[in-house]
């Protein structure tokens, strides 16, 4: 992609603060969490190790990791008033709205009364968000009140076990685990920045996360993985996909899952999730979604020098695991809550209220006109 003109729109290219949590390279490499390269984390770590890293700045040793996983498991249960509330939300609600409401209700039932509780609240949200989502999902879609306190000791395995009502395969568990690692943290993206702005007013953790969920929901940010699925599932062949996407480009439509505010050549998370999509597609005998996705990727590069971001191949990978499309962005929440809450803690540790200036482009001062004279 050509070098961008940075005219200040969208705060692009301007530093809005500092962080020790993550840095984002621009050319498709250099994405690190606390100094660890994303591809090494995706190869070797578990999501719980990554969450621990973000909260503590260092990887856990074996006993710290098993202690942390045990601790997160204790946070999977939901209080009865929250279940009652989730049961009122209709099946056609967007699950992102369910997570936003669930987080907010939890903030009423288990309020953060002091910043000394911030790690507990962060861990509680990590444990509870998959339960909130899937308790509502099963109740609203088939009237079933699922037990959220059973299952695998990884968040990925627990999520898939709750969703499908059976233990996941090792391959699916690992794919979701890797996906949670890829989605965990990304510096000053829109939803994290939302959380930090809220934190800068010394607000509570649930408010910061509730706002962040709202920001992630949009199709220009996390919502792109669902929009990418909506695109690729329309096609029954590569040729049909190419024709349609070419037409979209002529009409200057946005192709969801492509482009990035910071990366210029590629998104380093794409190659990782793409490999998983290929592997899972082969396992289910897919002849369409993966080839269609790959053809769109090539076309977008050839025609526009636009590359897949983290979201595009997540669509097919999640689909191959039998995950309903409307749960795609909520899974992003279940992961990114680690980054959001780590950023809230970092903001609080060295806080100044975030309040930029605006360039005024409105009317010059003018005199008041009485109602009768307008
Ligand atoms: C996990 C994540 O949140 S990753 C992002 C997920 N979002 C998406 O996939 C949505 C689709 N992508 C986009 O809308 C954009 O690429 C964004 C929001 C990610 C970044 O926005 P910006 O930084 O403003 O984009 P950028 O300045 O690089 O755009 C350059 C040009 O490419 C075009 N462009 C950028 N992305 C796309 C796209 N996906 N499809 C078609 N054209 C695009 C822009 O319209 C712009 O064209 P113009 O110069 O004629 O106006
Ligand atoms: O950094 C961004 O602007 C968006 C993104 O990729 C993310 O939040 O993971």
UniProtKB/TrEMBL annotation:
Keywords on record: Acyltransferase, Transferase, Tricarboxylic acid cycle
Keyword presence, S-adenosyl-L-methionine: no
A single GO molecular function term of this UniProt record: citrate synthase activity
Catalytic activity as recorded in UniProt: oxaloacetate + acetyl-CoA + H2O = citrate + CoA + H(+)
Pathway the protein contributes to: Carbohydrate metabolism; tricarboxylic acid cycle; isocitrate from oxaloacetate: step 1/2
Record bears the keyword Acyltransferase: yes
UniProt superkingdom: Bacteria
Family stated for the protein in its record: Belongs to the citrate synthase family.
Protein's name in the database: Citrate synthase
Originating organism: Endozoicomonas euniceicola
Taxonomic lineage: Bacteria, Pseudomonadati, Pseudomonadota, Gammaproteobacteria, Oceanospirillales
Gene: prpC
């Amino acid at each position: 992609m050509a070098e961008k003109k940075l005219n200040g729109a969208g705060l692009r290219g301007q530093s809005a603060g500092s962080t020790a949590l993550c840095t984002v390279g621009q050319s498709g490499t250099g994405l690190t969490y606390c100094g660890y390269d994303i591809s090494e984390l995706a190869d070797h770590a578990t999501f719980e190790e990554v969450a621990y890293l973000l909260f503590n700045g260092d990887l856990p040793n074996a006993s710290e990791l098993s202690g942390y996983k045990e601790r997160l498991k204790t946070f999977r249960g939901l209080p009865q008033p929250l279940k009652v509330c989730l049961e009122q939300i209709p099946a056609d609600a967007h699950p992102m709205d369910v997570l936003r409401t669930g987080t907010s209700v939890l903030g009423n039932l288990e309020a953060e009364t002091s910043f000394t509780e911030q790690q507990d609240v962060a861990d509680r949200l990590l444990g509870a968000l998959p339960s909130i989502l899937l308790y509502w999902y099963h109740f609203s879609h088939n009237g079933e009140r699922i037990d959220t306190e059973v299952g695998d000791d990884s968040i990925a395995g627990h999520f898939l076990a709750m969703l499908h009502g059976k233990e996941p395969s090792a391959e699916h568990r690992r794919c979701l685990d890797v996906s949670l690692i890829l989605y965990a943290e990304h510096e000053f993206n829109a939803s994290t920045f939302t959380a930090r702005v809220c934190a800068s007013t010394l607000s509570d953790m649930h408010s910061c996360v509730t706002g962040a969920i709202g920001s992630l929901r949009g199709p220009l940010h996390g919502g792109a993985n669902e929009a990418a699925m909506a695109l690729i599932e329309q096609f029954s062949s590569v040729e049909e996909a190419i024709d349609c996407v070419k037409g979209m480009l002529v009409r200057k439509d946005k192709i969801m899952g492509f482009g990035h505010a910071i990366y210029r050549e590629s998104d380093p998370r794409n190659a990782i999730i793409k490999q998983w999509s290929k592997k899972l597609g082969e396992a289910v005998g897919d002849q369409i979604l993966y080839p269609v996705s790959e053809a769109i990727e090539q076309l977008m590069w050839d025609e526009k020098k636009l590359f897949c971001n983290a979201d595009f191949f997540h669509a097919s990978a999640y689909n191959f695991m039998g995950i309903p499309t409307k749960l795609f962005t909520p899974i992003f929440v279940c992961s990114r809550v680690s980054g959001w809450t780590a950023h809230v803690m970092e903001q609080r540790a060295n806080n100044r209220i975030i309040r930029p200036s605006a360039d005024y482009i409105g009317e010059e001062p003018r005199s008041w006109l009485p109602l009768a004279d307008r």
